[in-house]
Design brief:
Rossmann fold; OB fold (Dihydrolipoamide Acetyltransferase, E2P); 8-stranded mixed beta sheet; 10 helices; 23 strands
Length: 470
């Protein structure tokens, strides 16, 4: 007998009331109408709303919020005046305690649904000490309009630039420096790139700051070409022209002439000062270049470093730190350990930063390998010296090749650090099938006001004939 085709009970343009039942992983509210799932952006569980249907698919529909009829007790007023336009944050309208519950549930649900893992304990959630003014890097898009220059972030799901003066999740000096550079760009009439026509010069503005040393590094992403020297001089003099103690230490031009949405190109040119800033975390002084990866929340990064260290307490033998970036975890561990720590990273600029940081901190038991994790892990497959592996991949998670190598090496412990619960759960499913069990899960709120989080998982070899944590 043929399966009865489900008839969508709503049409685009229809308007009605809904009760918001839950929050999706995207941060949108979830409701149901005659058994049909509808997403309601910018709502909270417990809201009663009046909406218009704007999109339908066989599995779900999307609505536009017209009116809030009844406010949920978990709703709060956003700190940002353009929050509902900007796509940078997704949870500012939700009270912070409820944001924590949302993130803890997101990890638990992902482990169960994707990883097929039922934990025998509750993951610990570690809230941010500073839910606002924490982000140490701003990447700003630019667009010239008849009303002037827009400098800000993209609206959700679009490439429309939302102009922003003061972003409440950025370290405050970044906002001040951005506005000063906006004035320089406008006063000097710098050509701004048009993404639609692929013409123009200045594509993006990057500002990095150390919360500890206060040093600031400026990145100007452009197509091929040169700045007028007066523009660079203007930016360099912000240290003197702005009221306050600002420490711009370098201005770097990054060249990206491709027709692409990818922000950074492969070539950097030093225009003024030096091409790195000094960062200090957990007693380690790091060198940080413009294109090197570093966690964007310095306050929670210290919590992350301590968490990884605690999970590896007592390990005697070589520790491999894969996807190591500038060596933030490797160097922190090596500082308080006699075990050999080996970082693996394919970004050559980050590797250079890591080696210089090891040298300036006098750390001798930490080394770094340039190249992919896939390539280097193979060289450890026959070794019994590797006692622990740290997996800290990008959002796409680990490749099948990496996971296979880890299972062949069979370290005593694995610490998996992830910013994506879905790929984390997928990878844990493979690691936990026979060899490993989950001993601890901590959810660190590295990205307050957004749907993103950092999850740290400790895995240990299974005891013989005993299944634990799965």
């Amino acid at each position: 007998m043929a399966k009865v085709k489900f008839k969508i009970p709503v049409k685009c343009g229809e308007k009605f009331e809904l009760s918001v039942e839950d929050i999706a992983s995207s941060g949108d509210g979830i409701s149901h109408y005659k058994g049909y799932t509808l997403f309601v952006p910018q709502t909270v569980k417990g809201d009663m709303v009046f909406v218009e249907v704007i999109k339908t698919t066989p599995r779900f529909g999307v609505t536009r919020l017209i009116k809030l009829i009844t406010h949920s007790a978990d709703r709060t007023e956003p700190e940002c005046p353009i929050y509902f336009e900007c796509g940078g944050c997704q949870l500012q309208h939700i009270k912070y305690d409820e944001q924590m519950e949302f993130k803890k549930k997101a990890v638990k649900d992902s482990l169960e649904r994707i990883g097929k893992i039922k934990l025998e304990f509750k993951p610990e959630i570690i809230p941010a000490r500073q839910p606002f003014f924490y982000r140490n890097k701003g990447i700003f898009s630019l667009k010239r309009t008849r009303k002037g220059l827009k400098v800000g972030f993209f609206a959700k799901g679009t490439h429309n630039v939302v102009d922003i003066k003061d972003c409440p999740v950025l370290l405050e000096p970044i906002n001040k420096i951005k506005e000063a550079i906006r004035r320089s760009i406008e006063n000097k009439n710098v050509s701004v790139y048009n993404e639609l026509h692929h013409k123009g010069f200045l594509r993006s503005l990057i500002i990095r700051q150390s919360a500890k040393t206060k040093e600031i590094l400026i990145g100007l992403v452009t197509t091929e070409g040169n700045f007028d020297s007066s523009v660079i001089q203007d930016i360099a003099e912000i240290n003197n022209t702005l009221k306050g103690n600002y420490k711009i230490v370098g201005i770097v031009q990054n060249i990206n002439s491709l027709k692409t949405n990818i922000i950074l190109g492969t070539e950097n040119r030093l225009l003024w000062g030096r091409d790195y800033l000094n960062e200090s975390l957990g007693g380690i002084n790091y060198q940080l270049s413009l294109t090197s990866f570093f966690q964007i929340n310095p306050y929670q990064t210290e919590t992350l470093l301590k968490t990884v260290e605690e999970m590896l307490t007592g390990v005697k033998g070589t520790i491999l730190d894969t996807y190591s970036g500038i060596g933030s975890i490797s160097l922190y561990l090596a500082k308080n350990s006699v075990s050999p720590i080996i970082g693996i990273e394919e970004n050559e600029v980050a590797i250079e930063d890591a080696k210089k940081s090891a040298e300036r901190n006098g750390i001798k038991n930490c080394s770094f390998l340039a190249g992919t994790t896939e390539k280097h892990l193979k060289n450890f497959e026959g070794s019994s010296d590797t006692k622990a592996i740290i997996l800290d991949p990008p959002r796409k998670g680990c490749s099948e090749e990496v996971l296979n190598s880890v299972l062949k090496i069979k370290p005593e412990r694995i610490v998996y650090v992830s910013c994506n619960p879905s790929t984390l759960s997928r990878d844990l499913n493979k690691l936990c099938q026979e060899v490993y069990c989950i001993k601890d899960v901590k959810v660190i709120d590295m990205f307050p006001q957004t749907v993103h989080m950092e999850t740290v998982v400790l895995l240990e070899k299974r005891e013989i004939n005993k299944k634990i944590g799965r």
